[in-house]
């Protein structure tokens, strides 16, 4: 009898699948008997009975998992090592794909932009024309040179860039923009006396759209919740380390008119500067030394 029992145990040990089925069957039968004993013949189960029935189900499940884990421990260890190696290889090989996918989720959850918005990502600026799970396509705009026009280039940004660079939404710049530029004057003269007349000239150029600009500026302030510089022109004068004077001009204007207005203001400044200092303080055979930045 002991020899037969040992042979049966050896057989079941060698055939782990059959042993696992027998263990699961035995545990399920025991659980069913215990649950039937707890429930009894009552029509409605009490709260106390529900607790013990739940404990029984959870306990038998935990016991089954532990027994099966101990039975298949060696196979599970080998499988885990192989799966880990495969998983690491897959993650390393598909790192960029995973980052692009998660970057798309980050964009959608944060609502950073949508199609038609102007955005800036790193050194690239443009209007979003398409976005999907892997990449975002933009029509490039030359914002860094203050031109605000399309360059004709299409840039495809992998969504992984959203984890590396901040995404700036420039959608309000599609209509109106804070346009800034500077004029450098090499001659050391008092430029502050030119400011009132220059502001008057700028205001005359902005008369046709200043009312709309004020309303739009108010909309932006309300949406952003911050106090912006305002639609009125701003001028301030600084000096460089080499003694040159720099006139900084900032105006709030329609985006498509920014470059044209800049040229008009530069012309006005040159004319005012020439009328004020060109004859009295400069030689007749020398033009005022004014450069543009």
From TrEMBL:
List the GO terms this entry assigns under cellular component, sorted alphabetically: membrane
State its location(s).
Membrane
User: By its UniProt entry, which PANTHER family does this protein fall under?
Assistant: MECHANOSENSITIVE ION CHANNEL PROTEIN (PTHR30566:SF27), YNAI-RELATED MECHANOSENSITIVE ION CHANNEL (PTHR30566)
Gene Ontology MF terms in the entry = mechanosensitive monoatomic ion channel activity
Per the record, the domain of life is Bacteria
- Residue stretches making up the Mechanosensitive ion channel MscS domain: 101-171
Under the heading InterPro entries, the entry gives: LSM_dom_sf, MscS_beta-dom_sf, MscS_channel_2nd
Stored Gene3D superfamilies: 2.30.30.60
**Major localization listed first in the record, in broad terms:** membrane
- For this protein, the parts annotated as crossing the membrane are 17-35, 56-73, 79-101
SUPFAM superfamilies, per this entry?
Answer: Sm-like ribonucleoproteins (SSF50182)
* Protein name stated in the entry: Mechanosensitive ion channel protein MscS
Keywords of the record: Membrane, Transmembrane, Transmembrane helix
